[in-house]
Amino acid sequence: MELLPSKAQISSYIIHSQDEEIKRIAIELHEGVGQNLYSILTGLQYIESSVDQPNMKNYIREMSQLIEKSIQEIRLLSVELHPPTLTTLGLLPAMKSYIKLYESTFGILVDLESTGEELPIPERNSIALFRVCQEASPILQNMRIHPM
């Protein structure tokens, strides 16, 4: 007799599949699109150095700044989707990195305290906990916290 998978197993498989796809997209954004934009930026900077016309030089500089901004946005999006530190260094370093990015983006200070030794946990659990941290971020943006 063949056993059918439970709803929980199916849900778990779907969530895992979605997380793997998100991870793939994040890597492609960073390694593919981000690297292509960086190559274009480098080429523009080379062209700028050989152009003598001030108007053209200013235009190239503006285009370079736009590409630099796009690179930063791609990196931010990539980290939001799946931070590389989560896989390479673990949950705590990934959360610290995310909090640092969050603080610099929104100007809201977040205090993360950890005690004891960080024990390794399965990547699926790390991703779930990291997503909880991300989901809490918009709540902090809407809160008005007054010092005592």
Automatic annotation (TrEMBL):
Molecular functions (GO terms): kinase activity
Highest taxon listed in the record's lineage: Bacteria
Catalytic activity reported: ATP + protein L-histidine = ADP + protein N-phospho-L-histidine
InterPro entries, sorted: Sensor_HK_TwoCompSys, Sig_transdc_His_kin_sub3_dim/P
Enzyme Commission (EC) number: 2.7.13.3
Keyword list, A-Z: ATP-binding, Kinase, Nucleotide-binding, Phosphoprotein, Transferase, Two-component regulatory system
Limits of the Signal transduction histidine kinase subgroup 3 dimerisation and phosphoacceptor domain: 23-86
A Pfam cross-reference name: HisKA_3
Protein name: histidine kinase
